[in-house]
Every structure is written in C-alpha cells, then in structure tokens.
C-alpha cells in the first residue's frame, strides 16, 4: 500500500500528465457484481464509459481479467489503470489509494484465479514503456448477493469526479461586457 501523498491529487496529476502528453489511457475495472462491495472496480469502469472522457477507454471486466488482456494493446495504451477492491480492516470502508502493481498479490483479497501481478508482468513485457497504476478501494465484506454499501458508492462518485476533473475538456468561458451606447448613456 502506498503511504505517500493524498491519492486525489496524485490521480489528477497522473491524468493531467497523460492528457498533456497525448498518452492513451486504458482503465480496467475489476469486480464481482454479485458480491456487494467487491463490484467497485466494475462500477467505476461502467461510470467512466458513460462519461466518454477524451483520452480514456474504460472497460468493466468483472471477474474475468484474463478475457480483457488484449484490450490494453488494442487501444494503444501508454497508461493502464486497474481499479479493484482491496481488503484492509485497518482502513476505512471506501478509502482508496494507489498501490504498487508489483505487490498486488500481497493485499488483494483472493477472488482472482490468476494473480494480478502476472497480468502486470505480461503487459509490461508486451508493451514496452507501459505505465501501470493500481487503484484499490477498501472494502470490508463481500457476501454473495449483498448490495453495494453507501460508502463504496461514495468512493465511486469521488473517483468519477476525479477522472472527470482530470480529463474533461472545458473550454474557457469569457464574459463579454457590452456597454449600452444608446442616447443618454455615457
């Protein structure tokens, strides 16, 4: 787990740098929709698909990351962001942070049949120079058929807002002042 600066500004800096450099970003959202809070990565990717942000291709991959490995190369990713649930009872429910991709297997709860670190190694070998980032959202329970908790939905909204802020194109707005030059007005 990272212990560095706040994750929000780090994400904004990552997105701003990728956008400025014209680096295509692929986001893979991992999670099981039938296991409550475990669906967080999948839900984030669905929300980002709906936003259609420039420079970002988001894919909700559910629990089958192995079926989505081709998407990274197909979309010419230079930056890959994985979003998934992490389980740390010491951290608040819904807290999110960046984690070192090389250490994924030490803190990811074990719902994956293939270790995530193996995918990261594969992508880095196949796509030289690929930046890989992992965002983990802290969950506490993954009971089958449980609904997603309000804290996890709040984390989803925070992540969607951060991506929107980092990648949206907002044209500068200017106010044009027009003076009334009719009779009697100076």
Description:
The longest helix is centred in the C-terminal third of the chain and has 18 residues, at 150-167. The chain has five helices and five strands; from the N terminus they run αβαβαββαβα. The chain has helices at 7-20, 40-51, 69-74, 116-126, 150-167, and strands spanning 25-30, 56-62, 79-87, 96-99, 131-139. With 186 residues, it is α/β, with parallel strands linked by helices. It has a five-stranded mixed beta sheet with strand order 2-1-3-5-4. Strand 1, helix 2 and strand 2 form a beta-alpha-beta unit. Helices cover 33% and strands 19% of the residues. The chain has a single domain (7-167), classed as Rossmann fold.
The SSE order reads HEHEHEEHEH
Unreliable stretches: 171-186
CATH fold-level name? Rossmann fold
Radius of gyration: 20 Å
CATH class: Alpha Beta
Count of discrete structural domains: 1
Percent in strands = 15-25%
Whole-number average pLDDT? 84
Helical residue percent band = 25-40%
CATH architect. name: 3-Layer(aba) Sandwich
Distance between the termini: 65 Å
List the SSEs and their pairings:
Elements: H1 7-20, E1 25-30, H2 40-51, E2 56-62, H3 69-74, E3 79-87, E4 96-99, H4 116-126, E5 131-139, H5 150-167
Parallel strand pairs: 1-2, 1-3, 3-5
Antiparallel strand pairs: 4-5
In short:
This protein is 33% helix and 19% strand. By secondary structure, it is α/β, with parallel strands linked by helices. Strand 1, helix 2 and strand 2 (56-62) form a beta-alpha-beta unit.
Descriptors for this entry?
186 residues, alpha/beta, 5 strands, disordered C terminus
């Amino acid at each position: 787990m990272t212990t560095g600066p706040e994750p929000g500004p780090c994400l904004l800096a990552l997105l701003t740098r990728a956008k400025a450099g014209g680096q295509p970003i692929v986001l893979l959202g991992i999670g099981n929709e039938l296991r409550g809070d475990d669906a967080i990565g999948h839900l984030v990717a669905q929300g980002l698909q709906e936003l259609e942000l420039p420079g970002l291709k988001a894919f909700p991959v559910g629990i089958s990351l192995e079926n989505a490995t081709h998407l990274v190369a197909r979309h010419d990713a230079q930056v890959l962001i994985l979003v998934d649930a992490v389980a740390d009872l010491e951290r608040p429910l819904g807290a999110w942070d960046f984690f070192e991709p090389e250490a994924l297997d030490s803190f990811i709860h074990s719902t994956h049949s293939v270790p995530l670190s193996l995918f990261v190694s594969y992508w880095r070998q196949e796509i030289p120079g690929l930046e890989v980032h992992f965002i983990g959202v802290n969950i506490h329970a993954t009971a089958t058929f449980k609904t997603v908790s309000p804290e996890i939905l709040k984390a989803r909204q925070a992540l969607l807002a951060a991506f929107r802020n980092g990648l949206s194109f907002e044209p500068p707005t200017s106010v044009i002042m027009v003076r009334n030059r009719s009779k009697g007005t100076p």
